[in-house]
Design a protein that fits this description.
With 255 residues, the chain is of the alpha/beta class. It has one domain: 3-Layer(aba) Sandwich (Rossmann fold). The chain contains nine helices and ten strands. It has a six-stranded mixed sheet, with helices on both faces. It has a four-stranded antiparallel sheet with strand order 2-1-4-5, with helices on one face. The longest helix is centred in the middle third of the chain and has 14 residues. The radius of gyration is 19 Å and the shape is globular. The mean pLDDT is 92.
Amino acid sequence: MNAPQPAAPPSLEVSGLAYAYPDGHQALFGVELTVARGERVALLGPNGAGKTTLVLHLNGILTPGAGSVRVGGLPLTRATTAEVRRRVGIVFQDPDDQLFMPTVREDVAFGPANAGLRGADLEARVARALERVGMAGFAERPPHHLSFGQRRRVAVATVLAMEPEILVLDEPSANLDPAARRELADILRSLDLTLLMVTHDLPYALELCPRSVILSEGVIAADAPTRELLSDAELLSRHRLELPFGFDPSVPVPR
């Protein structure tokens, strides 16, 4: 009889994470967060709550003052930073912070090429990433000739080309028109990845993430199914989160 296989480790384990900036401002106070493989989680909270600080710890841009980060069971250390950065891809709020090459193809190829991929393997990786975001026909276009929504999709492709385990998105719906917002949601739902989405767009969180976490004043203040969390008006008010006027989180979101 075959022995049972050990369970795969969570995609993300943050344990006791604390951080103070050089000016002495304490941004995180012992954050505990576990995200399972394939889970989609929204990270909510008011401005100044520590959301960006937390995200910048996930691939070693910031170093914890205390606590630890593990990605797919791999502890984040100086020796593992390069591998953790491959596993954790961050899509910034402004795609122009991520797109800087003359063509879309060169932007998407940049990361894998720097990691040593060459020739047909590199071209296949680029083509696959662009196909996943619906931008396969735009490889030779200059990014600055694209619409904002198209640039955001290309920014996602630059991260997907690294074949990450975790996709972290900072305000992915910001500045998108309704059609681009829906198109991006369809793309994100189709990805077989662990997703952590930082957003103030509570309806988008409900549409895409079954689970939500509120980070407030540097600690996890709530962790619950998104619909349950958004139905708690007192909780939202206490942490300066607001639903759009007339939005009812109990009504299923159309897709």
